[in-house]
DNA sequence: CTACACATGTAAACGGTTACATGATTAT
DNA sequence: ATAATCATGTAACCGTTTACATGTGTAG
């Protein structure tokens, strides 16, 4: 039951609609969780029903009406409890790794192609994350921001996401290269 | 539906029982997937029913009787199809990241404690993975093994796991340090 | 005789994905 | 008109987790 807390944590940064959250969770900035839009709308309904967030309608001239949500005091208390409770260990679950694991026994060509696609996608995400990090830092250099800047939480998760994508990219490139060389023998 | 393929890929390395797979998937070596024992037993039943693996009973004097499984030709064909199909993008889903995301708004102390626990766990896992990598390599240096050694698939996934754990460790240590320093202000 | 590691499962509940569905507004 | 983007949902299905359950053999 952690999407619940991921949404709460995301809403600490400001008021967002389901649609805005969906973009952040689904596309680029999912540096600390990932979810489909449908799931977010569902979760937002539940959170509102439980009084952990409150929504307000915003009528727009130029766009359809949307509902913005903010964390309530009850929501903040729930998050505090969650933060103090034990975490599950993190683990990788990745289709592509399963394919690489099997690559000695199946045709390597499609696996190589997918590694190269992934590498490209990872590069794109690194760039997005770099932009976000720069926006947080403003004029400060990273060291200074880490010591005194604010907010620190989102900056740290963003850093983690950035490194994950960078690592993923490097590994994909290396693996593709090696498998390609071996295929030529 | 990827545990299915993860199990198939794992069984390419030899015959394993549910219990043996459980240890590999659950504890240290889950470098390409993760699953609970119960789920593995269930999945093995399904795979056998579908003819993708075949099991044989092994009566042991010193231990309870177990069932060892191996991939059938149909299973290998299934894996080949899977490897050629498109992969879903990989993403992080981690409780602890959610907590760090919220750390500006909740008590940092328990989050710091959890970061330190995670760092220690990651170090332990790095050591396990290093051992496995050395066992694969034997006398060869890494570069040579990557170019000519066999199997290459499991070695590459193991390398990915190792780097993931190392990164995770480094990030946890750094984040804990920073949050600790900030708490003292 | 007790604790531990080996060995294998079932059932209920939960969380996440996929498919389906709708409608407003703006730009082309 | 039509496509694209903004905006929000429901329902069925599937995969995962949690809790429950059982039994063998070894070592202390």
UniProtKB/TrEMBL annotation, chains A, B:
Residues 92-180 form the Transcription regulator PadR C-terminal domain. Transmembrane segments: none annotated. It holds the Pfam family PadR. Residues 7-80 form the Transcription regulator PadR N-terminal domain. It comes from the Bacteria. Coiled coil: none annotated. InterPro entries: Tscrpt_reg_PadR_C (IPR018309), Tscrpt_reg_PadR_N (IPR005149), WH-like_DNA-bd_sf (IPR036388), WH_DNA-bd_sf (IPR036390). This is PadR family transcriptional regulator. It comes from Amycolatopsis plumensis.
